[in-house]
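Sample intake sheet
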Amino acid sequence: QVQLQESGPGLVNPSETLSLTCIVSGGSISDDYYYWSWIRQPPGKDLEWMGAITGSGSIYYSPSLKSRTSISRDTSKNQFTLHLRSVTPEDTAVYYCVRDQNMVVSGKNSGSWGQGTQVTVSA
């Protein structure tokens, strides 16, 4: 029953901040049984876990993206948000929000996924 939907701009200028919001229905982001994650897939590449927030508010980041990534939540809106700073064209990808029992999500065969949103970094 849980549904996740990514929302945000599809085009971002280099050096700016990529911001996406995950809108959740049918489940509570305060449910600590799950991790609420952001995952992306650049063209022709594998899925890349970016980070997650738990139902209690603990936040974890991929070491490769930690310096540029911020995840937050708004429990009153049942939403959580991704901010990726100083983007380059290499950040172009389909971005997904995911609910899963595991912190680092290995593939689309596990957890509940949003449909994904294409974000292009280009001037």
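Comment: The longest strand covers residues 18-25. The mean pLDDT is 96.
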